[in-house]
Design brief:
Helices cover 43% and strands 22% of the residues. It has 311 residues and is α/β, with parallel strands linked by helices. The strands form 3 sheets. Strands 3, 4, 5, 6, 7, 10, 11, 12 and 13 form a 9-stranded mixed beta sheet that branches. The protein has a two-stranded antiparallel ribbon with strand order 1-2. Helix 2 crosses helix 3 (29-43). The model has no long low-confidence stretch (mean pLDDT 89).
C-alpha cells in the first residue's frame, strides 16, 4: 500500500540511514530500499541523493513529498478519530499552545470560539514550541500557537501579533520603575522557566546578546510554569524576563512592576500554525478569525502587544 511506503519514506527522512530506518520499522533493509524505489518510480523523480561524504539528503522533490506525506499522516489520525466517533458527537478542535499564551491569551480565544460555535468541543494542550510541532506532525493537534519559526515547506502559518519581552520585579524591589543598565540587574536573583524549554533557550539568547549569563546573577531559581515565576517575583524573591502580555494585568493592578533596561529590545512573532495543505485548513482559518477578533477587541489590553497582524 502507498501509505506504508510513505511511512517508510518519512522514517528514512528522519534517520537518513537505510539500516536505522529498517530497525525503526522492524523490516529488512532491502524492504526499505524497495519502498523508496517504488515511490521514486510512482512519482517519476529522485527523492534522495548522497553527498561526497556518503551522507543521505533529500532532493527538492523529496522535500515536497515529505511535506505532503507528513500532512497525510497527521490528517489520517484526526480523520480516523472522527470516523470512530458517534454521529451525534460534536466536532472537536484540538489546539496546541506554548505555556505562556496558554495561561493568558488562548483561553480568551477559546471562550469566544465557543460563544460563536457552542456545539463544538475543544481540547487544548500546553507544551513547548518544539514539541507542539511534533504533535502537529503526529496528528495529536490540528493547529498550534507558537513563537518559533516554522518551515514554510511543511507548515502553513499566519502571524497573529508581535510580543515584547520585558524585565519584571516586585513593586518592593529597589529597581522597580527605574531605568538601569543591564549589569545593574546581576546583583539580583534571576527566576526563569526550567531547563530544556524554549523559554529557557530564549532567555539564554537574551542574556548572551547583552554579554551576560545566568551565572552572572547573584543566584537563580528554576520553576515549571509562568504562573510560578510570577508568584515568586511578586514575593520579591527575584526578577524575571517574560512577555509583556503574560503579565500586563499584574502590571496594571500593581502586583508587579517593570524594570526599564537601557538598550534592551527583545521581540518575537506569534504565529498560528498547521500542516501545509491540511484537510483541516478551513477549521484552522475559522479559529484564526476568532483569534484576530479577540486581539482586535476594544476590551482587549492592546498595550500588552506591540502589533497585530491581519495578513
Amino acid at each position: 500500500m502507498l501509505d506504508l511506503k510513505l511511512d517508510t519514506f518519512l522514517v528514512l527522512c528522519e534517520t537518513r540511514n537505510y539500516t536505522r530506518a529498517a530497525s525503526v520499522l522492524n523490516i529488512t533493509q532491502p524492504a526499505v530500499t524497495q519502498h523508496i524505489k517504488y515511490l521514486e518510480n510512482h512519482y517519476s523523480t529522485k527523492l534522495f541523493y548522497y553527498d561526497e561524504k556518503r551522507g543521505l539528503h533529500l532532493t527538492e522533490n523529496g522535500k515536497l513529498l515529505r511535506a505532503f506525506a507528513q500532512t497525510v499522516q497527521a490528517d489520517s489520525v484526526q480523520i480516523a478519530q472522527r470516523l470512530k466517533a458517534p454521529p451525534e458527537e460534536p466536532d472537536e478542535i484540538k489546539i496546541g499552545t506554548i505555556v505562556t499564551t496558554g495561561e493568558s491569551l488562548v483561553p480568551l480565544m477559546v471562550a469566544e470560539y465557543l460563544r460563536r460555535y457552542p456545539n463544538k468541543k475543544v481540547s487544548m494542550y500546553l507544551d513547548e514550541a518544539d514539541a507542539l510541532l511534533e504533535q502537529l506532525k503526529n496528528g495529536r493537534i490540528q493547529f498550534c500557537i507558537t513563537d518559533i519559526h516554522c518551515p514554510q515547506e511543511t507548515y502553513e502559518r499566519k502571524e497573529l501579533f508581535e510580543g515584547e519581552t520585558i524585565c519584571i520585579c516586585s513593586p518592593k524591589c529597589p529597581l522597580a520603575q527605574r531605568t538601569v543598565d543591564f549589569c545593574d540587574l546581576t546583583d539580583l536573583r534571576l527566576i526563569f522557566r526550567e531547563n530544556d524549554t524554549y523559554s529557557k533557550r530564549n532567555l539564554m539568547k537574551i542574556l548572551h546578546d547583552h554579554n551576560q549569563d545566568i551565572t552572572n546573577f547573584s543566584s537563580y531559581v528554576e520553576v515549571g510554569t509562568i504562573n510560578a515565576v510570577k508568584k515568586l517575583v511578586m514575593e520579591n524573591i527575584g526578577i524575571s524576563f517574560t512577555y509583556r502580555f503574560a503579565v500586563q494585568d499584574d502590571l496594571d493592578s500593581g502586583h508587579l512592576s517593570q524594570i526599564y533596561v537601557r538598550n534592551f529590545l527583545s521581540r518575537s512573532f506569534f504565529n498560528m500554525t498547521w500542516m501545509k495543505n491540511s484537510f483541516f485548513t478551513p477549521l484552522c482559518l475559522q479559529f484564526l478569525d476568532v483569534c484576530r477578533a479577540v486581539l482586535a477587541s476594544p476590551d482587549f489590553p492592546s498595550n500588552s502587544l506591540l502589533e497585530l497582524h491581519s495578513n
